[in-house]
Task: inverse folding
């Protein structure tokens, strides 16, 4: 998804030009290039979980492999692996949060759906046909013949 890639690179998921972050993990209220509003995103908890999952697997594999194949001193392992985990986590946290904001934009989650329906969506996207899924139902009035609203 292009919006996720733009977010991963700290760019606006809509235009790809403006910066997504004002500070390290603080998403800007809007894009400085196209004016897309970001204040309604909900990317607070998922990025750290994803980073912990990825870094934990990489560092954990490194710890296990070095313990089985190499004879490294204990002090070395207790210095290198936590430092590597800290640096990798700090390097991945902002791009991961940007990708999650881009995913929310691409899927029309939270406030992004209303903005895209209003015509601020990406060029060529049929904004009038987009729907937002809530509790398993469509919000555009077409419910597939079911009795549910």
Result:
């Amino acid at each position: 998804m292009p919006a996720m890639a733009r977010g991963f690179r700290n760019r606006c998921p809509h235009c790809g030009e403006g910066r997504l972050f004002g500070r390290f993990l603080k998403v800007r209220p809007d894009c400085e290039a196209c004016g897309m509003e970001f204040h309604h995103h909900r990317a607070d908890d998922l990025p750290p979980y994803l980073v912990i999952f990825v870094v934990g697997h990489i560092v954990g594999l490194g710890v296990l492999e070095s313990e089985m194949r190499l004879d490294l001193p204990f002090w070395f392992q207790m210095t290198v692996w936590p430092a590597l985990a800290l640096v990798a986590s700090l390097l991945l946290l902002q791009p991961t949060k940007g990708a999650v904001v881009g995913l929310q934009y691409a899927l029309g989650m939270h406030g992004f759906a209303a903005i895209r329906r209003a015509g601020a969506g990406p060029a060529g996207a049929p904004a009038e046909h987009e729907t937002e899924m809530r509790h398993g139902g469509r919000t555009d009035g077409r419910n597939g013949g079911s009795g549910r609203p």
The first helix runs from residue 2 to 8. Helices lie at 2-8, 46-69, 74-107, 112-120.
